[in-house]
Design brief:
The complex is a heterodimer of chains A (172) and B (781). Chain A has 172 residues and is an alpha+beta fold. Chain A has 5 helices and 5 strands. The model of chain A has no long low-confidence stretch (mean pLDDT 94). Chain B has 20 helices and 30 strands. In chain B, the strands form 7 sheets. A 7-stranded mixed β-sheet of chain B has the order 3-6-1-13-10-11-12. Chain B has a 7-stranded mixed β-sheet with strand order 4-8-16-15-14-9-30. The termini of chain B are far apart. The chains are: A alpha+beta (172), B alpha+beta (781). Chains A and B meet through helix 2, helix 3, helix 4 and helix 5 of A and helix 1 and helix 18 of B.
């Protein structure tokens, strides 16, 4: 790599684990984690809606903690483990939180949903038996324009009940 | 059929894909060799474009092309009008000024597109946008609606004599004569300001021109894929069959994605064809605030004439409507306002006059509600003022004026947004309102609870607001229903889908006719390769117009199935029933034949068929209503205001809806909840603040406040069902019902809570700050 090349375009050898699979790829330092996941890895389930960390649609789990992938550079995830909505469950085998969203009609257009699911998975890991007020507080960093949140709140409650009855393996 | 599927809480067919990140949205489309576009947009709201230097941008590594208006040559022309002015209205004045692909000479709103960069990546395209040098002469901006109508105002369109875009007068009866008989005449000035639709998914478009097959494929976040296909083909000199438009999963529509053609929809397909390369453009949130259409700005001068006992003798509403820099969407919004300003009330004399005004602001086209919330706000505010003046209970004054159940169909004698006569088809209005009163416990609250809480020093208020919603307008939609060789059902319809649950409700309609499970019905919507007749998803019309077209097609297929099965089973049709994917003889369940077998028999590979035979178990049908079905509802709320912060705590929120036949109560409730959340935003949080230069001051989700889970109350939904006589399913639309009455309801409840100062609310949106200002000006009584 030529030393005269501006730092902006010097590629960085990124290595990270996404949904249990290890990836190694050279990226520009300015590449956002959201763009890396969506465009480099083709994991388009993570959606981008505001690009400034307010709406929560792009939330993924970084070592199990929810982060806004539009506010994180891909290089910051170097050596870490990322879980996206694709890592929660599959069409054939929905994660209990996904299943509860289906049962309670917690999804309409589905654009904000992946970020809400990842947020809720982390939230329920921390607080397995939340009150409605705690659920609303936990969701307050995720905007949804379709549902008015009521069925989402119901879905989180349902997920908590179901997961208490049948504890799950933690997400990858 | 042993049990009906219509009205069941069927879980959604589309959910597993949406919940696992497998559903395709426009930004998820990936094509080898895909290029990326970024637009240079104006920082000024009003300016003359003197020069553009794009040479540095063109030289940047990774940039493939930069286009300006000049580069488009003879292909540069404004977008087509989306809705023409109503031919049925007399004396209508309408100056059609349409948005341009790229600015040629004059910038008319901040965010208007000036040039586009096409590059190997979006990052590079955005870098290159910064390389472009623009020479502008800033002009004084036209922002305020009333100032825009002053003779000395600068003009948005230099070739017009003023900023008047359109003028429309409508009347029924004789308002002036009614006024002379009145015991009370009240006048008010009511101001309603702009908000954003703020769908979570921004707009986007991918265009892929294949030179070898001479075919253009477009993925577009549009609510109207078929008109986009037809218009694009016409502009590019292609046959409609050379263009396929796909509106895949759309991350919320709410109206602005019905607007067409946006500048980007004019530019990106053109550039893809020119470069013979696929191009993607995805709007960012800041662009969305500037370049995606908005709504609601109106100023009303209202006069209401009443008798002493609270009967409305007449209503006069003269108003200004802000259309922004251009007016491609015609008069849809102000027509809706005119048609809703009488609410669900029996008003015999009505005069309404709108002046549509050009301003140097983002274009205005319908946002969920589309002029209806303003109309309802006007009449409900006037009734609250009248109730106070006449010392009549706010509920009682409404009851006295509601259209009685035996008066339907109720003809108003003015035209609606579809240029059809405004006729309210059916309803039982007081029953709906009564149910809302019961659910919220109106009497007990007013009699016992409110006085008790007030004694404790609490500012608690109650509101109750009835409303109508014109829905399900024409012209038509269509659908094709096919029994496939597998025995499963395929449905294609033209309307796009933006989260309304069409994959499920429409499946229920088909499953009901063909005796299959809704999960065995696969629906494609919004792909012109599958179905290419139709208009789009707007005006709460999907379940009504497309729903009934699907019902009609499924009914024909059912007849075909029965006819063929009757021959095969040697049994009269009326002794057959469809269930579990089979046709069987009613009394002899083991004499049956599957839909799969019938589908294969209807499409033989060898042998002779009777002359005139159509292959397959398939039918295409259309539905076009004579006029729209009008839904009715009532919302009620109890709130408490913190007098120090003016923050509002919604204690109870009740809605009762009558949208005719309910297809799926689970999905219906979701529609209501979401509508109310936009309504609460409209009422108390969401206002687009434009400064005197036409600059939007809150163009981000950090500053423009969309309600979050902590602002939203739990909503209790009740139903009354009055079937519409205008269609076989008996449905009326409900997509906008949640939003329409909320600002009116909010104003009423806030006034009620702050009654000790005699505060009157005549504006929307409010905010804690604004409410504090209004409140502090009033002395405590």
């Amino acid at each position: 790599m030529a030393t005269t090349e501006p730092t902006l375009h010097q590629l960085f050898d990124l290595a990270l684990t996404v949904n249990g699979t290890r990836h190694e790829q050279a990226v520009e330092p300015r590449t956002l984690l959201s763009d890396f996941l969506r465009h480099d890895l083709g994991l388009t389930g993570t959606h981008v809606a505001c690009e400034h960390g307010v709406c929560g649609a792009c939330t993924v789990l970084l070592d199990g903690e929810p982060v806004r992938s539009c506010l994180v550079f891909a290089v910051q995830a170097h050596g870490h483990s990322v879980t996206t909505v694709e890592g929660l469950g599959s069409i054939e085998q929905l994660h209990p939180v996904q299943e509860a969203f289906r049962q309670a009609h917690g999804v309409q257009c589905g654009f904000c949903t992946p970020g809400i699911l990842t947020t809720v998975v982390a939230f329920l890991a921390e607080n397995p038996d939340p009150s409605e007020e705690e659920i609303r507080e936990a969701l307050s960093g995720n905007l949804c324009r379709c549902t008015g949140y009521q069925h989402i709140v119901d879905a989180v409650r349902l997920a908590a009940q179901n997961m208490k009855a049948a504890p799950q393996q933690p997400a990858r | 059929m042993t049990k009906t599927l219509i009205g069941q809480r069927v879980l959604r067919n589309e959910d597993p894909r949406l919940l696992t990140g497998q559903a395709q949205f426009v930004d998820d489309v990936e094509i080898p060799g895909l290029l990326h576009a970024a637009f240079l947009r104006s920082d000024h709201a009003h300016a003359r474009l003197l020069g553009l230097d794009v040479s540095a941008a063109r030289e940047r590594p990774g940039v493939v092309a930069v286009f300006t208006a000049e580069d488009m040559g003879a292909d540069w022309e404004p977008g087509p009008p989306l809705v023409s002015p109503p031919p049925t209205a007399k004396d209508v004045l309408f100056h059609s000024r349409r948005q341009v692909p790229l600015v040629k000479d004059k910038i008319r709103h901040a965010g208007e597109a000036i040039a586009v960069v096409i590059a190997e990546s979006r990052y590079i395209a955005e870098d290159a946008v910064e390389d472009i040098v623009v020479d502008l002469e800033p002009l004084e901006a036209v922002v305020d609606l009333e100032m825009a109508m002053q003779p000395d105002s600068p003009r948005v369109h230099d070739d017009l004599e003023s900023n008047l875009a359109a003028h429309l007068f409508q009347k029924k009866g004789d308002y002036d004569a009614a006024r002379k008989q009145a015991d009370l005449v009240l006048q008010r000035r009511i101001v309603i300001d702009r908000g954003a639709a703020a769908a979570m998914e921004n707009r986007g478009i991918v265009a892929d021109w294949d030179e070898k097959s001479q075919h253009l494929t477009i993925w577009d976040t549009t609510q109207a894929p078929i008109p986009i296909r037809n218009g694009t083909a016409a502009r590019l000199g292609l046959s409609e069959n050379q263009v396929r438009v796909i509106a895949p999963f759309i991350g919320g529509g709410f109206g602005p994605k019905m607007m067409m053609f946006y500048s980007e929809e004019l530019v990106i397909p053109w550039a893809a064809k020119k470069l013979k390369r696929p191009i993607k453009w995805i709007e960012d949130r800041r662009e969305n605030f500037y370049a995606t259409t908005q709504e609601r700005g109106q100023i009303h001068h209202v006069e209401i004439a009443l008798s002493r006992d609270g009967h409305i003798l007449g209503l006069k509403d003269i108003f200004l409507h802000d259309t922004g820099a251009y007016d491609p969407y015609g008069l849809t919004i102000p027509l809706n306002t005119q048609c809703h300003a009488m609410g669900g009330y029996d008003i015999k004399n009505f005069t309404t006059e709108v002046s549509v005004v050009f301003t140097n602001k983002t274009l205005v086209t319908p946002v969920r509600g589309a002029g209806r919330p303003q109309g309802i706000y006007v009449i409900e505010r006037m009734l609250d003022a009248a109730a106070r003046e006449l010392v009549i209970d706010p509920v009682e004054i409404r009851r006295r004026n509601l259209i009685p159940p035996d008066a339907f169909p109720y003809e108003h004698g003015i035209i609606d947004q579809a240029f059809s006569p405004l006729i309210l088809d059916s309803g039982n209005y007081w029953a709906v309102m009564q149910k809302a009163l019961e659910m919220i416990g109106y009497e007990e609250f007013v009699r016992d609870e409110q006085p008790r809480l007030r004694k404790e020093g609490k500012y608690v208020g109650i509101g109750i607001a009835p409303f109508i919603e014109s829905t399900g307008v024409g012209p038509y939609e269509g659908a094709r229903v096919t029994v496939e060789a597998s025995g499963k059902i395929f449905v294609a319809t033209g309307v796009g889908t933006q989260g309304q649950g069409h994959f499920t409700t429409f499946a229920q309609v088909v499953a009901e006719q063909l005796g299959v499970a809704p999960s065995d019905v696969r629906l494609v919507s919004g792909d012109t390769a599958e179905f290419h007749w139709g208009t789009g998803t707007f005006a709460s019309r999907g379940a009504v117009v497309a729903g009934n077209a699907i019902h009609a097609a499924a009914s024909i297929v059912r007849r075909k199935v029965l006819e063929l099965a009757s021959k095969q089973l040697d049994t009269p049709e009326d002794e057959l029933e469809l269930e579990g994917g089979r046709v069987r003889v009613a009394d002899i369940p083991n004499r049956s034949i599957s839909l799969a077998e019938l589908a294969n028999l209807a499409n033989p590979l060898r042998g002779a068929v009777e002359p005139g035979t159509e292959p397959g178990l398939e039918a295409t049908a259309y539905f076009g209503p004579r006029y729209g079905a009008t839904a009715f509802g009532t919302h009620a709320m109890i709130l408490e205001i913190d007098p120090e912060t003016m923050m509002i705590d919604i204690k109870r929120y009740v809605t009762v809806e009558d949208c005719g036949t309910v297809l799926n109560p689970l999905i219906l409730e979701g529609q209501i909840h979401g509508g109310v959340s936009l309504g609460i935003g409209n009422a108390y949080y969401e206002k687009l603040h434009f400064d005197e230069n036409g600059q939007l001051l809150n163009a981000s989700f950090a500053d423009y406040l969309v309600p979050s889970a902590t602002e939203m109350p739990r909503i209790e939904v009740g139903h009354v069902e009055t079937r519409s006589p205008l269609n076989e399913l008996g449905t009326k639309g409900v997509g906008e019902a949640g939003t329409i009455p909320v600002p009116a309801l909010f104003a009423q409840a806030v006034e009620n809570a702050l009654a000790d100062r005699g505060l009157e609310i005549l504006e929307s949106p409010l905010s804690p700050n604004r409410l504090y200002e209004l409140w502090s000006r009033k002395e405590a009584r």
